[in-house]
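Hi everyone, sorry if this is the wrong subforum. Our group has a chain we'd like a structural model of before ordering constructs, and none of us has done structure prediction before. Sequence below.
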Amino acid sequence: MTAETTTPPTAAPSQATGPLFYQQAVPLRSDEHATWRLLPETANFAADTNAIPAVIGEFGSLAQHYPIIFTGQDAMPLVAVGLSQRNLFVADGVWDEQSYVPAYVRRYPFVFMQAGEPDNYVLAVDAAAKQVNQGDSEEGLPLFQDGKATELVDNAMRFCSDYTREHEHTRRFSAALIENDLLIDRNIDVTLADGRKMSVNGFQVVDVEKFAALPDETVVAWHRSGWLALVHHHLSSLARFSALVNRQSQVPAEA
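Answer:
Right subforum, don't worry. Here is the predicted structure as tokens:
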């Protein structure tokens, strides 16, 4: 998702190739990372983006706080968290307490990496993350003790496992949207409270008319799989663009 504005836009943040936020993911090893620790949680890493990846298992929660949109050739879902290259839900390193925190954000700095076979994964951590203390001090929670993974790492393993499974379910749902030709390109033009105008483009939404015209057998199959509810969550979430505009209006132009 990209945004344009009539005022000088903030430059898009530079990002390494690969998953959003991750710069130097390395597989965790008890011997190599015996002294590594995790510092207190902060959301600063997510402050300079306007969209966060989402998985279908959290659509119900996400729809209450953010617009859910689709992007790219694979139509992967994202939640819009800003209209320019700034996350309107992060302030001073803290995610807005009144808003649901996407699973993608809660997973960081951990991630699963493929190891050999397609279904074989190992737990990795972003070595470049500011939350990661590479043994420079005793600050933070240890990742390993006495050569064994701590509860912190065990919890991260379970979370990443669940997330990877949800990601695969999400890929199948997105593929079904594409197969049934339900997605259409959308752009929005907004006027902020101070008169600034912005254009947001580069995303897709489900076409309501095409969705309503799905064959009966598809409707029944999607109802049983829970996909009908996912589309309704997506469509209802688009009303959250108004709240996003209000948040953007509260940000001074010079910011």
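For your construct planning: The first helix runs from residue 59 to 62. DSSP finds seven helices and 16 strands in the chain.
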